[in-house]
Amino acid sequence: MTNQIQIEDKTFEILLEKHNISKRTRLIGIQMNVDYENKCPIFIGVLNGSFLFMADLLREIEIPCEIGFIKVSSYEGTASKGIVKQAFGLPGNLHNRDVIIVEDIVDTGLTLNYVLDEVRKQGPASIKACTLLLKPEALIAPIKELEYTAFEIPNEFVVGYGLDYDGLGRNLKDIYREKTVPSHLL
Ligand code: 5GP
Asked: Which of 74, 156, 162, 171 qualifies as a FRET site for 12, CA 20 to 30 Å off?
């Protein structure tokens, strides 16, 4: 672990160390093993950012379960519609299933709400969401399905452990936040 890293034009400093991420992940896994006892949930990871968290979380799950991934892309729609999202690869067999969406980070909550709507269309038995990181100050409205949150973080840009800056940094073991220059030094 290094305290400070450089990716392209930005400097990042350590926010969450891997051993703390592992501890929280283990606790969430234990809680899910209890909450879904005698069930067979399907975990759906939202790519790309969730791939490491999903892998580590699923290693803590001891009940029978299935796993899938989706990729959500967003692009600018017409001025009236704003950001339009599209999901690729959502499993088509979610009717009557207990679904757990796994996200890397919930910022405004638009992506998670979009995924929840897409899952709801298939008539699942239940839907819950789990996120590694949550930025409460950026969240537009509370999301009742968000049952499991590993860490609440300030409204700052973060990289590492699945999260990227300009495609880079996803392979970092720890999570870093963008280092900002104090205003009196600008
Ligand atoms: P939301 O739809 O909740 O606003 O944003 C969710 C998506 O925005 C995440 O899946 C992630 O791709 C991206 N995102 C939001 N905040 C950050 C951040 O601090 N760092 C990185 N790397 N991506 C972020």
From this structure: 74
Span from the CA of 39 to the centroid of ligand 1 (angstroms): 31
Nearest by Cα to 103 from 150, 138, 63: 150
Please list the helix, strand and coil fractions of the chain in percent, rounded to the nearest 5, in that order. Answer: 20, 35, 40
CA 167 distance to own-chain centroid: 16
Please, how many CA atoms are within 13 Å of residue 78, restricted to the half-sphere of its CB?
2
Q: What percent of the chain has pLDDT over 70?
A: 92
d(CA 181, CA 186): 7
Predicted TM-score (pTM) of this structure: 0.94
Nearest to 118 by CA among 163, 87, 76: 87
Q: How far is the CA of 124 from the centre of ligand 1 (A)?
A: 26
- Give, in degrees to the nearest 5, the angle at Cα 27 between 42 and 92: 10
pLDDT of residue 85: 76
CA distance 59 to 170: 20
Residue ranges of domains in the chain, CATH in brackets = 21-153 (3.40.50.2020)
Residue 86 pLDDT: 81
**Would you place residue 186 in the very low, low, confident or very high pLDDT band (cuts 50, 70, 90)?**
low
Catalytic residue among 56, 98, 104, 107: 107
pLDDT tier, 61 (very low <50, low <70, confident <90, very high otherwise): very high
